[in-house]
Design brief:
The complex is a heterodimer of chains A (147) and B (509). With 147 residues, chain A is mostly helical. Chain A contains 5 helices and no strands. The radius of gyration of chain A is 16 Å and the shape is globular. The radius of gyration of chain B is 24 Å and the shape is globular. The chains are: A mainly alpha (147), B alpha/beta (509). At the A-B interface, helix 3 of A face helix 6, strand 15, helix 12, helix 16 and helix 17 of B.
Chain lengths: 147, 509
């Protein structure tokens, strides 16, 4: 990826709102560890997790953009886009454990959270690294900006 | 017996001296005029990707012509890569998603090769580059095969008009005249002209320039055998070295020098040769270098290391966005900071050079060559001055110039004419100044526009012009500008997806 700061943020928000939303809608009913929770509550939790990835992500992108400045190429290798799921996942998991994420009374079980988080991440990463260029022919030349 | 070219329908002194032509002027000279709304001059990869964009945007072949003296868009590129030691099975220096045959860049070449070879190796490399592996790059052959497929799909050869373009002049009342000299026997007149609203120039490198001391040697001693340029045929060097041990001087620190070294070292290993290599760098890079902590490029053993011709983000990221805003001195400064000769740091090359240093047959050093002379035993003596002021002489059997110096744009007749007659100017690097949408500044003619892309425009608001992806970026800017002018419809997400599906099914458009 060859992102600019605004391109990073726009791409993240757009892909979470599209790919992330579709994956969440499909995966929530089959996620493990749901217990007796109603499907509506499980969706609510799933969507809050997705929204948190988006909101926290804006801060993460600022950090990534800063780190990218140390790279001569000013690029963001494909691998980085995948591996950043580790710190981002851990932070969000920590915040859920501390019950400081608004909109959720009790955090989801570990398996529910991690599977949901990883699958969404992987889907967004795959789309960003290829298929995204099919409908949006100018996107990759504009540092990931859509508008 | 050779027939002489027709004398009818030739350029008249009046036409040559008049910067803006009327329809009557051409009529008076007896030059036939063809009406085609968009004409691209060159017929190499720059013309091809521009036509590809326009065809995908929905422009019919009847509105487009490519004026060229080559038969296929990859002909010149393939010649240059082959002589500079990249035959079809070898890999070029280009990113996996820089596909001149596919404006979406998806699927990437790596995905395609993975599919074809039924191997995940290519995908693993793309996923871990450049941290745990070298940048993945496509085979030259893959690029040419795909170009052929796409050329057929967009009916490229229906748009091709063979001949040598002589000039482009503005037309009184708007648009342009492009004058072509058709191949002998194909036309009743010496010239034909194309009247069009839009002209695109993609004429490639204006020409090759030799290092002055080598040019001087070749001319003075009429020796074109021992002193060669890497961009011309020089297979005899490698063949001679197979028959007897020899010393080769390699000049230059770019990708071509790397390729030539690889060939010399591969042959040494394959045939058990005794070749000695003297590698002269004018600028010898000893480590990381650059203006500050946020702009440092890796280097060592003489080389500056970089994956591609430019830092990657010029093709879409931060550097592209930054350069787009700069003019004059500021632009020249950023070009200087990210410029300089460089080569990728490939693991195979590193191993070969390390072995050469260890076994004392590869010697790299800094120096500027004052002159080259023949020795009494018919060898070459290079007089080299190093930065510390020392003068040394090195004897060798061959010298390979890998510096790839380029000639001034006025070396190309069409560009020289444009600068003289059509209001075109130079950018901070001395090449053709173009707008952000690749229209040549100062050349507008009524509602017509003249565009240029490729090496002739290096130094503009977009840096990577002389690369596959750069040509596509230019083509997109041009196609979008033409859409704004009403020549075609802009490509939105839905139409783009449907066009991509046609591409994927290899459906002719």
């Amino acid at each position: 990826m060859l992102p600019t700061l605004s391109g990073r943020i726009q791409t993240r928000l757009f892909l979470l709102a599209t790919v992330g939303l579709v994956v969440t809608a499909l995966i929530v009913p089959v996620l493990p560890g749901a217990g007796s929770a109603a499907l509506g509550d499980r969706y609510r939790t799933g969507l809050v997790v997705l929204a948190s990835v988006a909101v926290l992500g804006v801060c993460w992108e600022l950090l990534y953009h800063f780190l990218m400045q140390f790279r001569w190429e000013k690029d963001w290798p494909t691998l980085f886009g995948l591996l950043t799921l580790v710190p981002e996942g851990l932070l969000l998991w920590g915040l859920l454990e501390l019950d400081v994420v608004p909109g959720i009374t009790a955090g989801p079980p570990a398996a529910t959270f991690w599977i949901h988080f990883a699958v969404v991440w992987l889907a967004v990463w795959l789309v960003a690294n290829g298929p995204m260029r099919v409908p949006f022919v100018r996107w990759r030349f504009r540092g990931g900006r859509l508008v | 017996m050779r027939s002489s070219p027709p004398s009818r329908g030739d350029l008249t002194p009046e036409l040559l001296q008049t910067s803006q032509w009327t329809d009557e002027l051409l009529h008076g000279a007896g030059i036939p005029v063809h009406d085609i709304p968009f004409v691209t001059v060159g017929g190499g990869i720059g013309s091809f990707v521009t036509l590809d964009y326009l065809r995908v945007y929905g422009v019919p072949t009847g509105s487009l012509r490519v004026l060229s003296n080559i038969d296929t868009p990859w002909e010149t590129y393939e010649y240059l890569t082959r002589v500079s030691q990249i035959p079809r099975p070898e890999r070029i220096r280009s990113d996996s998603s820089s596909r001149p045959d596919n404006l979406w860049g998806f699927p990437s070449y790596a995905l395609e090769e993975a599919w074809r070879d039924k191997s995940l190796r290519h995908l693993r490399q793309v996923a871990t580059e450049p941290i745990f592996d070298d940048y993945w790059t496509p085979r030259a052959g893959t690029v040419f095969q795909n170009l052929e497929r796409e050329a057929k799909r967009i009916s490229y050869w229906d748009m091709l008009v063979k001949g040598q373009v002589r000039m482009v002049r503005r037309r009184v009342g708007g648009g342009y005249f492009t004058v072509l000299t058709p191949p002998e026997g194909l036309s009743a007149t010496r010239r034909v002209a194309f009247r069009s609203r839009y002209v695109h120039l993609a004429i490639g490198y204006p020409g090759l320039r030799f290092l002055p001391d080598l040019q001087d040697f070749r001319e003075r001693y009429q020796d074109y055998h021992h002193v060669v340029n890497a961009y011309e045929r020089h297979e005899h060097v490698y063949e001679t070295l197979k028959t007897r041990p020899g010393v080769v001087v390699v000049r230059g620190g770019g990708i071509v020098a790397s390729r030539v070294l690889q060939r010399l070292m591969d042959d040494r290993e394959k045939y058990g040769l005794q070749t000695q290599i003297l590698h002269i760098f004018r600028t010898f890079v000893t480590g990381s270098h650059g203006p500050g902590v946020f702009m440092r490029r890796r280097g060592g053993d003489g080389w500056a290391y970089q994956g591609f011709n430019y830092p990657k983000s010029v093709w879409g990221g931060q550097l592209k966005a930054q350069m787009r805003k700069l003019d004059g001195e500021d632009r020249a400064k950023l070009y200087k900071n990210m410029g300089g000769t460089n080569t990728p740091r490939r693991r195979r090359w590193q191993q070969q050079m390390a072995k050469g240093r260890r076994e004392n047959w590869y010697h790299a050093f800094q120096g500027v060559v004052d002159k080259v002379e023949p020795s009494p035993d018919n060898r070459l003596v290079s007089h080299v001055r190093s930065d510390d002021g020392q003068l040394r002489q090195y004897a060798s059997d061959f010298i390979i110039d890998c510096t790839g110096l380029e000639a001034d744009i006025t070396e190309h007749r069409v560009l020289a004419d444009l600068l003289q007659h059509s209001g075109a100017g130079r950018n901070p690097l001395g090449r053709l100044e173009v707008e952000r949408h690749f229209e040549v500044k100062g050349t507008a003619s009524g509602d017509g526009a003249l565009y240029a892309s490729g090496a002739a425009t290096l130094g503009g608001y977009f840096p990577g012009v002389d690369t596959f992806l750069g040509l596509q970026i230019a083509a997109q800017e041009i196609a979008d500008d033409l859409a704004r002018r009403g020549f075609c419809k802009k490509l939105g997400p839905l139409r783009s997806t449907s066009q991509w599906l046609k591409w994927a099914r290899n459906k002719a458009i």
